[in-house]
């Protein structure tokens, strides 16, 4: 009966305790900081760059940095141990050099963005992007203090070894910063009396597996050590996209049509994981290129291929932010006759290379103005280049887009550098003339080059959300202007005008006569495409351009980051761009899925896409993907430190997390240690006393064991 | 096993056996042998097999000591030079360290 009673009491006790016990102890102590993006580690042939915490995470006392003096106090005067500096993006550039130069007292940094205080400059790219992969004649040196740097305000953090973790908290997660700030104000405000008190602290965990350089980390990833078969880094890379106006001829004996190669970049970068909007640095150029390709495909139907002796090849390069991965691979493949794989070209087949470079930076500067000044950089004034510029200027001037030629070997960062290094003979001799269109003369107009702030605000994008007609009919630009939906100053209009001017110029190159039709690029298409790439991948265009076999679930309503990522894991932007080219510039065939899959016409690929009415559509296109992985990773026994090709790899990590908590003052721990020591001493003294007085205390104790049996027992016990 | 209960010839046999096993690159067995038979070899009053046991105990202790020196030297050299040995250092490593050279 007694047992039953005890049991009942236990059950009741547990029933009462359980509801209060739900929250686990660590949840009571720590409050996690959600929605942050961590800086991670990348490596090249000779160095490691980026951040890593220790494997247990970096812990430091939270310190809000409101001005430069706060940072100076943290670095020189703080005595409470390493601190986690919490900094606004507007102040970041002013204090980061101090925190980098004196890292002893810095455990980590949290950067947050508050839209009310947008910085004038915020770029973690170096002053001379891809400086070490630049072609001959480049004058930009990030080490020199002269003012001819392209990215003047760049801190270069993305290329430097940062001794502590950095986390970024976007505008949408400002409540997390408020949480830290409240905790900071409650515990850490009295700077001169912090010691021995409970303090508001932060733990940042972003431990990176890779170290030293790409050669070391790839070697460690390849060796299958017995206990740690861990991959520590992966090469960067993804896919390049190419699309030709007419199918490329196959075979050696066929006379190939001279090609005009028109390129742009897909990717961009930022210091932080999963945050690479790249609106001005890459999206505007890429979208303009796709629109121009679509427009030209309408001006010259593919069926007329036999009428003309010229062709246009459009290419989108990926991984350009990291020593021009995509264009280096294309230039390398061209030099060995392997690009495009199914009908390889030689460099002399290309009679002009036009790159749409960074053209989004000045859109904000000219937002009140219908004009859009562009600059055409070329290393030398070969006749193909000057002829192109004359026609292009004529076409673009009609739309208030001026084009100023700049003949210099000091070219802005662009894929031209890859061609000029790898195909040096052809570019120097004029076999492969190259021209680059950008929106800046000298330094970049985009002050957020390759950063988290290079977003829709940076180009002044306002989404008009106009419904798309049946079969993907987009409202023409003139109609949008006539009924006041858009103005001449809208970036969509400017981009459609540039795309039209480029398409008309290329039309003249292909056909030999000026275009006099009325086909133009639609600002409505620009609106939709920009929305897809910089706001949300759950957009009309990408839904229609997706594989019909893909699941119907709606993709996330945020833009896909344009960071190239690791080669082993395809990232969406290249697939999006390729599919948009297929859907918008390809021929829609009236076939069902089985018939579509059975198509085998040489020079074309066939895609079964979802289409505008979601019922599936068969697309015949010349669009195709090629691998954008640096030649460094495909050449056997390539010397990683040679600097010839891009050798960037990305470290593997297990988890990234940040949390805030109140660290104990240490008084409790000290008291516990003292109590423990006291109890031990007391117990020893008591035992000693008991032994001493055992005879008095235990008068009838049995005599000590002395027999042989006892000895054996003792031995066994030992 | 209690050595006190073992006849002397068995003790010698056991000590010799441990020494031989230790020859198979098992210095820890030598170390155990040396400690275990130390009293038998040097403390107990003399008996017939004691000299032989003494010999094996000394050889075991010496062998174990040499092993300790060699291993300590190797560990020191490996730990201080692993990074500069680069690929060789990594291939000699049983556990490759994460996040550092």
Q: What's the number of extended β-strand segments of chain B?
A: 0
Helix coverage percent of chain B: 55-70%
Strand adjacency order, main sheet of chain A: 1-23-9-5-6-7-8-2
The count of strands of chain A amounts to 23
- Give the low-confidence spans of chain A: 705-718
Could you name the ranges of chain B where pLDDT drops below 50 across 5 or more consecutive residues?
A: none
Structure report:
The complex is a heterodimer of chains A (718) and B (101). Chain A is α/β, with parallel strands linked by helices and 718 residues long. Chain A contains 21 helices and 23 strands. In chain A, the strands form 4 sheets. In chain A, strands 1-23-9-5-6-7-8-2 form an 8-stranded mixed sheet, sandwiched between helices. An 8-stranded mixed sheet of chain A has the order 16-15-17-14-12-13-11-21. Chain A has a 4-stranded antiparallel sheet with strand order 4-3-22-10, with helices on one face. In chain A, a hairpin with a 4-residue loop joins strand 3 and strand 4. In chain A, helix 8 runs parallel beside helix 10. The radius of gyration of chain A is 33 Å and the shape is elongated. The two termini of chain A are 44 Å apart. Chain B is mainly α and 101 residues long. Helix content of chain B is 68%, strand content 0%. Chain B contains 5 helices and no strands. In chain B, helix 1 runs antiparallel to helix 2, helix 1 packs parallel to helix 4 and helix 2 packs across helix 4. Chain B is elongated and about 60 Å long. The mean pLDDT of chain B is 93.
């Amino acid at each position: 009966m007694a047992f039953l009673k005890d049991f009942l009491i236990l059950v009741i006790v547990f029933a009462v305790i359980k509801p209060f016990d739900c929250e686990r102890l660590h949840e009571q102590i720590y409050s996690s900081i959600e929605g942050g993006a961590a800086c991670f580690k990348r490596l090249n042939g000779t160095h490691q760059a980026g951040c890593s915490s220790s494997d247990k995470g970096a812990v430091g006392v939270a310190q809000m940095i409101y001005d430069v003096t706060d940072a100076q106090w943290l670095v020189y005067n703080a005595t409470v141990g390493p601190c986690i500096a919490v900094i606004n993006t507007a102040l970041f550039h002013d204090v980061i050099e101090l925190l980098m130069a004196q890292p002893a007292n810095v455990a980590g940094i949290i950067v947050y963005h508050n839209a009310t205080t947008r910085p004038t400059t915020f770029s973690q790219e170096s002053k001379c992007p891809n400086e070490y992969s630049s072609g001959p004649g480049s004058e930009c040196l990030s080490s020199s203090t002269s003012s001819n740097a392209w990215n003047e305000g760049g801190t270069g953090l993305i290329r430097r070894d940062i001794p502590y973790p950095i986390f970024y908290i976007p505008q949408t997660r400002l409540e997390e910063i408020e949480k830290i700030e409240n905790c900071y104000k409650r515990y850490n405000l009295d700077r001169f009396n912090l010691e021995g008190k409970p303090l508001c602290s932060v733990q940042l965990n972003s431990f990176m597996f890779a170290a030293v350089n790409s050669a070391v980390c790839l070697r460690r990833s390849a060796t299958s050590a017995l206990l740690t078969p861990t991959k520590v880094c992966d090469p960067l890379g993804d896919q390049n996209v190419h699309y030709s106006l007419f199918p490329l001829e196959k075979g050696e004996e066929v006379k190939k049509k001279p090609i005009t190669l028109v390129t742009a970049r897909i990717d961009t970068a930022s210091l932080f994981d999963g945050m690479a909007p790249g609106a001005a640095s890459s999206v505007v150029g890429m979208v303009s290129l796709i629109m121009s390709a679509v427009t030209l495909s309408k001006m010259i139907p593919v069926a007329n291929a036999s009428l003309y002796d010229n062709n246009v090849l459009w290419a989108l390069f990926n991984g350009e932010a990291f020593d021009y991965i995509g264009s280096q691979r294309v230039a390398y493949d061209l030099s060995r006759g392997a690009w495009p794989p199914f009908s390889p070209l030689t460099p002399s087949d290309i009679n002009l290379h036009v790159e749409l470079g960074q053209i989004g930076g000045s859109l904000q500067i000219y937002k009140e103005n219908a004009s859009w000044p562009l600059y055409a950089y070329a290393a030398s004034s070969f006749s193909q280049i000057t002829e192109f510029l004359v026609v292009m200027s004529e076409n673009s001037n009609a739309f208030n887009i001026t084009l100023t030629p700049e003949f210099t070997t000091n070219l802005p960062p662009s894929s031209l550098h890859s061609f000029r290094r790898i195909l040096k003979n052809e570019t120097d001799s004029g076999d492969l003339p190259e021209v680059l269109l950008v929106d800046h003369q000298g330094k970049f107009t985009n002050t957020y080059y390759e950063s988290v702030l290079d977003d829709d605000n940076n180009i002044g994008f306002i989404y008009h959300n106009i419904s798309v007609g049946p079969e993907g009919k987009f409202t023409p630009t003139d109609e949008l202007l006539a009924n006041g939906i858009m103005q001449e100053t809208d970036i969509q209009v400017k981009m459609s005008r540039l795309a039209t001017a480029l398409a008309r110029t290329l039309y003249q190159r292909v056909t030999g006569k000026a275009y006099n039709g009325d086909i133009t690029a639609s600002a409505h298409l620009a609106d939709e495409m920009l929305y897809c790439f910089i706001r949300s991948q759950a957009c009309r265009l990408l839904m229609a351009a997706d594989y019909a076999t893909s699941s119907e679930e709606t993709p996330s309503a945020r833009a896909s980051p344009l960071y190239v990522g690791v080669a082993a894991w395809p990232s969406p932007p290249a697939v999006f761009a390729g599919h948009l080219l297929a859907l918008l510039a390809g021929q829609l065939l009236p076939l069902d899925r089985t018939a579509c899959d059975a198509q085998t016409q040489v020079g074309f690929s066939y895609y079964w896409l979802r289409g505008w009415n979601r019922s599936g559509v068969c697309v015949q296109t010349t669009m195709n993907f090629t691998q954008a992985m640096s030649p460094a990773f495909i050449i056997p026994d390539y010397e990683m430190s040679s600097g010839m090709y891009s050798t960037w790899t990305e470290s593997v990590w297990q988890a990234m997390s940040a949390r805030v908590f109140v660290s104990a003052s240490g008084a409790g721990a000290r008291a516990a240690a003292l109590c423990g020591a006291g109890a031990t001493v007391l117990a020893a003294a008591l035992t000693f006393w008991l032994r001493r007085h055992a005879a008095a205390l235990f008068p009838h104790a049995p005599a000590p064991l002395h027999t042989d049996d006892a000895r054996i027992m003792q031995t066994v016990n030992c | 096993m209690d050595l006190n209960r073992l006849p002397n010839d068995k003790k010698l046999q056991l000590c010799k056996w441990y020494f031989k096993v230790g020859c198979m690159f098992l210095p820890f067995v030598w170390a155990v042998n040396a400690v275990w038979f130390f009293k038998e070899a040097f403390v107990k009053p003399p008996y017939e097999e004691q000299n032989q046991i003494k010999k094996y105990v000394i050889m075991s202790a010496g062998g174990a000591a040499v092993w300790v020196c060699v291993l300590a030297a190797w560990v020191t050299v490996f730990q201080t030079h692993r990074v500069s040995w680069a690929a060789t250092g990594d291939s000699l490593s049983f556990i490759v360290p994460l996040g550092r050279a």
